[in-house]
Amino acid sequence: MQSEIIKPEGTLSLQTIAMPADTNWSGDVFGGWIVSQMDLAGAIHAERFSKGRCATIAINQMSFLVPVKVGDVISCYTKILKVGNTSIQIAIEVWNSHDESRPAKQVTAGLFTFVAVDQSGQKRRISDEVRENLT
Ligand SMILES: CC(C)(COP(=O)(O)OP(=O)(O)OC[C@H]1O[C@@H](n2cnc3c(N)ncnc32)[C@H](O)[C@@H]1OP(=O)(O)O)[C@@H](O)C(=O)NCCC(=O)NCCS
């Protein structure tokens, strides 16, 4: 029987390498570091989509599936699930694609909400024109 190959969902919004300074005392990478990469990836996608500044208002779900080690190449994939008046809900997956000889492995899954804001940090409405560009 053929096993199903699971692939990342969404747009590759950020790729980086885990460094020694990002680890805890056990040599695993801090969860907080990974969450911050996810936040950056989501913000990049939200800002490109909404054509302006965005702020994180919530991390609605977060799961850590497997540990990340120093030298691992992590890829953050983002997918817009919902667009409200001012908010953008984004599913974010992180995959470890360090070892090219093996399939990439999913390490985290999260659901983040961003709010479009203006230059003074006040929420701004996402225009209908922008909303129509959601693919
Ligand atoms: C972003 C900010 C300007 C929004 O202003 P606000 O008056 O609190 O906004 P609202 O309560 O009206 O919520 C705005 C949108 O977010 C949504 N929202 C609010 N809390 C949410 C939550 N916990 N989960 C999901 N969506 C949420 C609302 O439903 C609304 O969506 P809609 O406009 O699409 O209908 C303000 O909350 C803020 O400055 N927060 C701090 C942001 C920040 O500093 N982030 C970095 C973290 S250190």
TrEMBL record:
Pfam families: 4HBT. Keywords: Hydrolase. It comes from the Bacteria. The keyword Hydrolase applies. CDD domains: BFIT_BACH (cd03442). Residues 8-120 form the HotDog ACOT-type domain. Belongs to the acyl coenzyme A hydrolase family. This is Acyl-CoA thioesterase.
